[in-house]
Amino acid sequence: MTVARKESISVSLLFFLLSAAIFGRVIFFDFVNLDDPSNLKKNPAMQDIALAWNKPYLDAYLPITYTAWWALSGLSQADHRDSHEIETWTPIPELDPAVFHLANLVLHACGTVLLYLSLRTLFPDASRSLLLLLSGIFLLHPLQVEAIAWVTALKDVLSGCLSLLLIYLFVQKPLSDYRGRRNTQRMLLLASIFLAACLAKSTRVFLPLWLLWLGHLQWKKPGVQLFVDLLPLFVIACVIVILAMIIQPHPKDMVYQEIWRRPLIAADALGFYIFKLFWPINLALDYGRNPRFLFESGQGYWTWIFVALIVIPCWYLRKRLHPWLLLGMAGFVISLLPLLGLTPFVFQTISTVSDRYCYLALALLIIGVTPVLSKIPQQKNLLVFLSVIVLLLGARSYCQLPAWRNSMTLWEHTFSVTPDSAIAHNNLASIYEELGNAPLAIEHYEKSMLRLPRAETCSRIAILYTDVGNWEKAYVWVKRGLALNPTDTILRQNEAAIAAQLQK
For position 86, what pLDDT does the model report? Predict the structure, then answer.
């Protein structure tokens, strides 16, 4: 066995053990009642996998992710509740969540190994300790907790792992030699992996642009030649973008989406990610930073200044900055670009920003800063500093993880960060409704309307008021729902039924 292979095995074991130590408890966690039931219980592809490839589901075409969930569902069909103490209502009692959580955990560890191997290939002269610590930052950063602990976030971890595999294979050697002869087999392999990454999550479409820049820095090859080498990836990216534009409609209930506002939204989101990257405290599933909040609170008009204070100096000093550092910063932005709000997307009705969106962005940033850090003279001091950072990040992630134990703990934690979280109130209300506690369900549904007014929520509130015999309040909420959506047929039917009851 070669020294390189022994090193790879040792590093892999180290990262898997670290993952198990910090995140291993996640296999005892339950599903949560946001998107997990829709993807695993209501998704028709879980019964017929051909549907995952034949048509989109919930306005998204992610056949690779759905195929992975289908396979995991087959492995988790068991009477697992005898070995799990379920303290609260569980959204998917027929499936074992441990199988799904384990998949996220293993993929995250594999992605970290691929990042380390890529760093070792790109920077063979860099200290192995430095590469290990930087990979450890990717592994243990608290921004990764959401992607690991949320079953629905498999698409982020799976597509991220495939993207890191693509990067690792790409950096081994150029796709063409100095005579322009191209390795067709490698090109097809990279194209296949990139296609799989995009079919796991379509937001990876900008990765070829970053690879173009990476190849230029690594091999000093002309951009045109690299573009031709990567042409199949660019073609795939264009097809995925067109497909997404056809499949994904404009989100409902979206306000403040005028073109001139979108750069302000994007700047706010980017500034938020930069801040949380260096200060990963008070992380949650919902931050409530949707366009409505930004502009009604007034924050959307000035938060762009923080990003401007970073971007403008970097632009003017771009010729003096280390080219790899520019690559890393560009990779961070490019990975987030489809989800900054320049184009509206569904989750943006709740919040433009989300921790899981940073999954691949963090890896690309680390690749860019590695050669800069490797040139710092006082390497011992740097390694000590990074060791402390890794320990602190690991401790923070370990403490943050229990928030994802089940739906109740998730939404209670969300309230500690975003007290008026509409999605937390809405999902807690659905739990209490399922448990038959109408008063608490009504209370949380009504609070959710303060940040996210929806006709569907008004309908639920009205029905719950009829359950407790308060027909007058039910009628008020039906009318409020019709004001939001006059064409809602369910609300119209409820209006007639409630009006008839009031006339008795």
Answer: 45
